[in-house]
Amino acid sequence: MEISDFIPENTYIVCVILFIVGMILKQTPAIKNWIIPYILSVIGIVVCNFVLEPGIYATMQGVITTGFTVYVHQLGKQGTEFFTSKGQENPGTVANTPSSRVQNLKRPVRIVKRETK
Predict the structure, then answer these.
(1) What DSSP character marks residue 7?
(2) Which residues, other chains included, contact 72 with Cβ-Cβ below 8 Å and sequence gap of 6+?
(3) For residue 58, which of 3, 15, 52, 96 is within the disulfide window of CB 3.0 to 4.6 Å?
(4) H helices of the chain, where?
(5) Helix 36-51 and helix 56-84: axis angle, to 10°?
(6) Distance separating alpha carbons of residues 92 and 35, to the nearest angstrom
(7) Those residues with Cβ within 8 angstroms of residue 7's Cβ, 6 or more apart along the chain or in another chain
(8) Residues 55-102: pLDDT tens digits?
(9) Distance (Å) of CA 53 to CA 43, 46, 110
(10) Which phi and psi (to 5°) does residue 31 adopt?
């Protein structure tokens, strides 16, 4: 199976456009990260309906190209994070696991007695 089985060659440019628009939106402080895939979905559907013959097929290709673009971005992002944090403890993910909280509870507690006069 090749990528051209799922995404027609004339919509490859839509993936590139969506990637660039996504990077621009990511740098925009007024737009929250969770809304970016929704914005890209609308743009992908509209652009694919212009590139292809408008209809259900073009709409589905817009969704598929958006999904592919977001997937490629996440692969790059998580791959970069993995290789840059290799060998370092990542407290944001390890310290909040249930097993680490249980281990924290099993630590001996040091009681300090103060002398009263």
Answers:
(1) S
(2) 15, 19
(3) 52
(4) 12-27, 36-51, 56-84, 91-94, 98-105
(5) 140
(6) 23
(7) 15, 61, 64, 65, 68
(8) 999 899 899 899 988 888 888 888 887 778 765 555 555 555 555 555
(9) 16, 11, 72
(10) -105, 125
The whole-model pTM stands at: 0.64
DSSP 53: -
Return the axis-axis angle of helices 12-27 and 56-84, rounded to nearest 10°: 50
Residue count of the chain, please give it: 117
Tell me the two tokens of residue 83: 């290789």
pLDDT tens sequence across 11-63: 888 889 999 999 999 898 898 988 998 999 999 999 999 988 889 998 998 99
Amino acid present at 78: Q
* Separation of alpha carbons 7 and 62, rounded Å: 9
Return the structure tokens found at 70: 């977001």
Residue 7 to residue 19: CA distance in whole angstroms: 15
Centre a 10 Å sphere on the Cβ of residue 68 and count the other Cβ atoms it contains.
Answer: 20
